Amino acid sequence: MKRIYLDNNSTTQVDPSVLEKMLPWFTEKFGNSASSTHAFGWEAEEACDIAREQIANALNVNTSEIIFTSGATESINIAIRGVANNSEIESPHIITLKTEHKAVIDTCEALEKNGIEVSYLNVKSNGIVDLKEIKNAIKENTILISILHANNEIGVIQPIEEIGRICKEKKIIFHVDGAQALGKIPIDLNKLNIDLFSMSAHKVYGPKGIGALFIRRKNPKIILKPIFTGGGQEKNIRPGTLPVPLIVGFGKAIKILTQNYISENAKIKKLRDQLLNGLLANIPNLIINGDIKNRLVGNLNISIPNINGEALIMRLGKISVSTGSACTSSIIAPSHVLKAIGLSDELAYATIRFGIGRFNTELDIETAIQVVSKTVDRLTKINKHIHKKEKNHELIN
Ligand SMILES: *Cc1c(COP(=O)(O)O)cnc(C)c1O
User: Fold this and answer.
1) Domain ranges of the chain
2) Do domains 4-9+261-396 and 16-255 have the same CATH topology?
3) pLDDT for position 385
4) What band does 68 get if pLDDT is binned at 50, 70 and 90?
5) DSSP state of 10
6) What mean pLDDT is predicted for residues 301-326?
7) What is the DSSP letter of 379?
8) Which of its termini does the chain have fewer beta carbons within 10 Å around, N or C?
């Protein structure tokens, strides 16, 4: 059986047309975009400018507001640390969610050690934050609110426009981790009142190792204290030689999505519905994690009661999916996101995250339904057999 990739929330395959655009920038056009004395430099700079424009256009912002980074993790660090370290308040306060990506949570935890106060807010059982929670958490010293646009585990989309309005009214800087949302839902950073927006190329069929950060330049102008020092590139916020091939690929990946995301979403949603209906027909007691309406169309996260999660995952073979556990420093722990929406450890372990993407087919989905359903059926039978044995044992005693 051929391998089937259903883990597109982790990373995506580089689109062949993205790769094709990148290739000349590794070979004959290898210049440093900062070389201002010859054509190799000029053409590299121009290529980066075009990519910057493709990204800025997709978000309805100015090209001068986009800086390139190595990915969303770095953008998030530059944004959150940059705001915190630039603050003149004695003990600044940051608000975020319990269900954020580790890049945000671990950065906030590191800042707590430096005397910065952080509130990690609860979400509702559907994974979405209650606006009242945010309003109640705001204090005199709140300098930053950081919210994940679309969750990487359960796909839910937060009410970013409403939170942006609150931030604007209270004059609090608003950072959004947009790694999952970029290119998949309409995003107008001005309309949403977002001040800082973190992005990654490898979640949108672009290459790994390139991302970007939007930094608002007016109303209000956001000033960050940089983490790195160096040669002055990217407005000195992220100095270092630009990886031109990766930047070209990122721009192309965004261009494709800007043009195609509506039809692509329709195709992916059809596959998601096929998957959900197929699984429900065979596993009627499955639990869907996260709001089913306000969510990325390609994400389906389910838990299966009374199943040994580890045994389930071990038997999925060629179906590549994610589980409800995360391996942090070699200890396996249930996902903090699933815990935050109220799942027991047992259910969190018996969880599968499907991430459907551009290159999946109906046949992939049909195969996944068969494999998962058969495995669950077998494990349920084994379970019943064990229970029966235990009962008999009780009777005998
Ligand atoms: C993937 C991801 C990140 C990290 O992005 P990298 O580019 O891999 O550093 C951060 N936040 C979310 C929501 C993600 O999905």
Assistant:
1) 4-9+261-396, 16-255
2) no
3) 77
4) very high
5) T
6) 89
7) H
8) C
Structure tokens at 249: 């690929």
Say how far apart CA 80 and CA 47 lie, in whole Å. 29
From the list 43, 51, 49, the residue with the least C-alpha distance to 27 is 43
pTM, two decimal places: 0.96
Comparing CA positions, the residue from 281, 3, 308, 341 lying closest to residue 153 is: 341
- Give the residue, by CA position, lying nearest to ligand 1 atom 14: 179
Residues with Cβ within 8 Å of 158's Cβ and at least 6 positions away in sequence, in order, are 97, 128, 129, 147, 148, 149, 150, 151
The active-site residue, picked from 48, 108, 167, 327, is 327
Task: Look at the chain and count its residues.
Answer: 397
Say yes or no: CB of residue 200 within 6 Å of ligand 1: yes
**CB count, 10 Å around CB of 342?**
13
What is the per-residue pLDDT across 164-183, written as a single tens digit (0 to 9) for each? 999 999 999 999 999 999 99
pLDDT band of residue 198 (cuts 50, 70, 90) is: very high
Any ligand 1 atom below 6 A from CB of 103: yes
Strand order in the sheet with 211-215: 66-69, 211-215, 196-200, 173-177, 142-148, 93-97, 117-121
Residue 327 appears among annotated catalytic residues: yes
**101: Cβ below 6 Å to ligand 1?**
yes
Residue with the smallest CA separation from ligand 1 atom 12 is: 179
| CA–CA separation, 231 and 84 (whole Å) | 24
Q: Which two tokens stand for residue 292?
A: 């089913």
pLDDT at 395: 65
CATH architecture of 4-9+261-396: Alpha-Beta Complex (3.90)
Architecture of domain 16-255: 3-Layer(aba) Sandwich (3.40)
Bridge partners of 355, per DSSP, are 7, 299
Specify whether the CB–CB gap between 106 and 137 falls below 8 A: no
